[in-house]
Design goal:
alpha/beta; TIM Barrel; 321 residues; tRNA dihydrouridine synthase activity; Four Helix Bundle (Hemerythrin (Met), subunit A); globular; tRNA-binding; tRNA-dHydroUridine_Synthase_C; oxidoreductase; two-stranded antiparallel sheet
Length: 321
């Protein structure tokens, strides 16, 4: 049990708001395998204020997909508020997160994402605007630094977030410059945890049960955010919980079971996604390759999967493995 503002949540292991991945189909599969709390995919504030667009698919809801939180990307306090109000007219998240972690250059040019780590006054203004105007807890996702790790700076940013009203902080232990590569700075997360009183969630490189435990052990964080580790591996949530309780390393999931889960995941995409057929099959191929990554004969598997032109053809090829 963890408390974020007024919200009591029955887990401290969350599925991250993975842009382009954590759609409704992905979340439903993750919940079947132990994910008890998820995020919608990241939503762009500017896009929301200009009409539903692709955010309509990003914010799809389902009665089995709860509890859940939302995340907004943007760099203008007023636009962020307007977008949040639009969003809350469509969905009822447990809390709303501000993305100050996305390292993409196109996002930085909009003065959003990890740019806000380097502009803490602007970040504080966004937090203050939302917390004073909205009826739900506001949280923030940070990077451990911008161009380089600076523990004093990230501690100062975290304190400013708390002072501005943030109910929790999610911190990816890499800088913007590192993107998703290189070592995770566990020390930065630990120091943030020691210097604020709100819940701190560690993120970055949680690709296995051992790395999940390492995040808790090295940082003392209150919870973790699982991102890439869940792609093609939705059972990681159940495995982490079991490993933290027993210390027993889970048995690898064999190929027939992988294929069974993959087939169900693909069926969810086929039923739920409303995008163009070419976009849908492209997503399905990417998902299939993630499930089958690391298996013997991976090159041959890729050659079999990559040319699939339809849902039916892709499923048939997966079942032939």
């Amino acid at each position: 049990m963890i408390k974020i503002g007024s919200q009591k949540i029955d887990t401290n292991i969350f599925l991250s708001p993975l842009a382009g991945c954590a759609d409704l189909a992905f979340r439903l599969i993750a919940r079947e395998y132990g994910a008890k709390f998820c995020f919608f995919e990241m939503a762009d504030a500017n896009a929301l204020t200009h009409g539903p667009g692709k955010n309509k698919e990003i914010l799809m809801i389902h009665p089995d997909d709860t509890p859940i939180a939302a995340q907004l990307l943007g760099g203008d306090p007023q636009i962020m508020l307007e977008a949040a109000q639009i969003l809350l007219g469509q969905i009822k998240p447990a809390f709303l997160d501000i993305n100050a972690a996305c390292p993409a250059k196109k996002v930085l040019k909009k003065r959003a994402g990890a740019y806000l780590v380097d502009e803490p006054d602007l970040l504080a203004a966004i937090i203050g605007k939302l917390t004073s105007s909205l009826p739900l807890p506001i949280t923030v996702k940070l990077r451990s630094g911008f161009k380089q790790n600076d523990h004093g700076h990230i501690i100062s940013v975290a304190r400013k977030c708390e002072e501005s009203g943030a109910a929790a902080i999610f911190i990816h232990g890499r800088t913007q410059r590192q993107l998703y590569a290189g070592e995770v700075d566990y020390e930065a997360i630990r120091l943030v945890k020691e210097n604020v009183s709100i819940p701190i969630f560690g993120s970055g490189n949680i690709l296995s049960v051992q790395l999940a435990k390492k995040m808790f052990d090295e940082t003392g964080c209150d919870g973790i955010l699982v991102a890439r580790g869940a792609i093609g591996h939705p059972w990681i949530f159940r495995e982490i919980e079991e490993y933290l309780k027993t210390g027993k390393i889970p048995e690898p999931i064999d190929l027939p079971r992988r294929i069974k889960v993959l087939e169900r995941h693909l069926s969810y995409i086929e039923k739920i996604r409303q995008s163009r057929p070419s976009n849908k099959i492209g997503l399905m191929r990417r998902i299939a390759l993630e499930y089958l990554k690391g298996l013997p004969n991976s090159t041959a598997i890729r050659r079999l999967i990559a040319p699939a032109k339809s849902y039916e053809q892709l499923v048939a090829r997966c079942l032939s493995l």
